[in-house]
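Limitations

Structures in this collection are predictions, not experimental determinations, and the ligand pose is part of the prediction. Treat each record accordingly. The example that follows, with calcium ion as the small molecule, is included so readers can see exactly what is and is not provided: the inputs are given verbatim, and the output is the predicted complex.
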Amino acid sequence: MKKSHLYLALCALSSLSVLVGCGNESEPEKKELAVSIAEDCPSRVECGNQIELKAVVNNDDSNQGVKWTADDPLVASISEDGKLTGLSQGTTKVKATSVADPDKSAEVTVNVNYNGLISVSITTKPTSIRVGETIKLSGSVQGDTTGSGIGWMVNNEALATIDQEGNLRAIQRGLEGKVIVNAFSKINPTKQSENLVIDILPSADGKEAIEEEVEKVGDYRLIFKDDFSSNNLNYNNWEVMIGDGKKYNVEDWGNQEKQFYREDNIKFKDSMMYITAKREEGRNDTRGKNYTSGRIRSQEKVSYTYGRIEARISCPYGDGLWPAFWMLPDNNKTKNPYGGWPNSGEIDIMEVRGRIHGSMFGTIHYATAQGAHTSTAGNYLFPQGQDISNFHVYAVEWEEGSLKWYCDGNLFYTADANNDPWSVKEESGEFPAPFDQNFHILLNMAVGGNFDGNRLPVNSDLPANMMIDYVKWFKK
Ligand SMILES: [Ca+2]
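Predicted complex:
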């Protein structure tokens, strides 16, 4: 129903109740409680600064009688009496709820900005480090008026770690034999230093790795890890995908999805990445989409052929929410040897429907010999007392001609030549194509779309957080 029609209907109802009300003059008059946001209430704040929000209750603008809450604690913190502190760039809906009648409330959207001209640089620039060695790096931040300081990150935490004092320690040479270090501004983590590439050399006694510190699963050795331990997105590993898919020539991401992806919907806290789906009506930068969310990929940054690919993830409840941890081949649209999707293949390590709390899916998509899309999938049911909202370790073990899906170490599906042989168009490749080339990782949460019958979340489901603790890639 359109709003104007609803309004007319309500007017008609209220005049009716006035007419009916004429006969009940003896009833005591009820005082209707009204909560609104004060006209002079601020709606913008700089990171690190505080503003005082103001509500009006029954024409009383003293800000008494309401409790304040914010819907995105990663963007701003708020006290019950309306003192809001900006934490990171983004928007949050803020609500004033009547203490006397919790059904009465009013909302305002607050923008948190950082407009300072920040630049970050690394001042010590070693070119190499030996396995087992620790080097202290230093750097500087210019233009940060809040004095929040500098943070550190390394692109591959399987090869070396760095703490927030800048101590870099090398664990193994790995496949690349180097790591990339960045310093960043803590108040605005998108402001990062230039890449510092540091070669990892064997230890003085010739060791390629501190063997007892290299994580192993069976025959697999860890070759890549992003633990998000610097509470920041590493652009050397990830590209943030923005928009409704048009930029990538897949309108509504090929699935009639209802979200617009924004970088603001990806945040970090306590060594965890949060992808947050929000209802954000009336924005002028989402091409009419009423939902926003986040999506990242590692195309041509973290991409290998074969291995065990793993992540630890918690998914939210909510109709139509579609969190996914999955893989596509590099350049699947343009330069892929097997052509575009579905011929070039897709590996879904984990997909859940926010409506269905007790199960998840692992799937491969590929093409029939005639070039039509087909897929084969396994379904995992969580044990009693667990569901999608708990943290689970989702993994696929992908080797030549075989894919095995695991949840928390439980093998629940195998696709191989004996079980579910796949194929692609005859002219472009035979089994085990297309799953014999470099694939990269994607993490996202869609809203709506055809994975769960175009259902949409109710407003109370949002904002909803998909939380990712880490991503790992192992190889034999
Ligand atoms: Ca982590």
